[in-house]
Amino acid sequence: MHYTLSTFIMPLPLVAAWPAVMEAVNLENLQKRQGSIPVVPPPRFTTDRDNCGSHGKCTVFNAQDQLVNVASGSGHEWQAPGTNDKRGQCPGLNAAANHAFLPRNGIATIQQTIDGLGAAYSMSTDLSLALAAISIAISGDPVAGKWSIGGAFPATLGLLGQPSGIVGTHNRYEGDASIVRGDAYMHGGSVGFFEMHRWERLYGLAASKGGLTHDKVASQAYYTAQYSIQNNPYYFSNPFSGLVAPDAHNFVVHFMSNRSEENKGGILNGEVLKSFFSVTGEPGSFVHTPGHERIPNNWYKRPTSQPMNTIDTNVDTVINNQMYPGIIRFGGNTGTVNSFVGVDTGNLAGGVFNGGDLLQGNNLACFFLQATQAGLADSASPLLQPVGQILSFLNSNLGPQINALSCPQLSDFNNDLFNQFPGASYKAQGQ
Ligand code: HEM
Ligand SMILES: *[C@@H]1O[C@H](CO)[C@@H](O)[C@H](O)[C@H]1NC(C)=O
């Protein structure tokens, strides 16, 4: 299977000038609240992607297949997490655990992740496997094969120390420029701070006509990247975590939209968004309750026959980046705001992908799967198993997907290029 970028870009009609969604968002109100608020330019073009994304529109609807039954008696009733249950910065995972699609304690195996996220969201086996294996490699317990959706948990005998869980993965999995959460450096090292100006903007997009779409969330991805540049002297975007944050913008639309017979691609309105993000109240007086993310009643996921795959999310990120150049960027501020310097991914990856090539065909998906290794030298420190063992764990889990995509061999990450960025060595504290 080989995709070229033009396959995705060309057939999308270039709809005339995009309606000014920004008007739904009151800039002045935002400014009062926090920081230097970016101005988002009009997109270079718009697309007709439905909420299942450009790679595979959702063409079927089957209520029985797609209803995610969380009613009383279903076994998937919502329950608030208990004091020892792990919850973190990912709303999709928190909601899945609150409904027992993942173990309620927030610690899961790869198989539990595949089964649970398939049932709750129609995430493909490949994508669940990749995301869970990466979690285990950089923040979990490779011996027991478990990872935590929140903070640290006790590891199997033989590991020194405790696996950090995904909240302890700053710049390796978790990163700056998230859709709602603030940058760790701006919040004393917390990676889970709910930044209201981001939320208010996102909610405004969802509450506007037609609900939240890929094109609208692309404007949020531009906004969040630009916000970091303008406000965080330590903003840093690592090759892998720097893709996770823009991809997670698309996850909202791909996974949280409500599908129906009339709208097979799905609609994501403000109410559904509030439920998934654990927000109550109204614009100007929103309240976020950490850990109470919830799958709404009467909510329909994408069809199980058209699940969301590893390629899908990266394809939409490439398109978003073409609409608003600058969403995909690797590098950082150099200690002051507005000082962003990019690193050439050609240098970064031993010459296999250069900046331009990265956006061609499957390359971004390949890079996504392969760049995790860049985080390993750092993460493997005294904590976990020797780097070699973790690498072979990752290879055995991700290798088949990398092979299936005919990815070019990526070797030779040169992390020295990051020394100029103070944010690259900044250690966050977790949630
Ligand atoms: C095994 C599966 C998954 C893993 C390992 C995972 C991991 C993560 C991580 C590490 C982050 C932090 C990234 C950042 O700094 O922005 C994150 C954020 C996020 N994830 Fe997930 N995730 C998974 C599945 C999902 C699903 C199924 C959804 C949607 C239903 C989702 C939606 C999001 C969103 C919206 C964010 C951004 C949160 C914010 O900024 O407030 N994720 N996830
Ligand atoms: C999803 O859409 C269906 C069909 O329009 C509707 O009946 C249902 O209430 C919606 N669910 C949510 C959570 O909005």
Automatic annotation (TrEMBL):
Organism: Cadophora malorum
Signal peptide coordinates: 1-17
Molecular function (Gene Ontology), one example: metal ion binding
Limits of the Heme haloperoxidase family profile domain: 74-315
Record InterPro entries: Chloroperoxidase, Chloroperoxidase-like_sf
Family the UniProt entry places it in: Belongs to the chloroperoxidase family.
Pfam family, one: Peroxidase_2
Cofactor(s) named in the record: heme b
Name of the protein in question: Heme haloperoxidase family profile domain-containing protein
Parts of the chain that traverse the membrane: none
Source superkingdom: Eukaryota
Keywords: Heme, Iron, Metal-binding, Oxidoreductase, Peroxidase, Signal
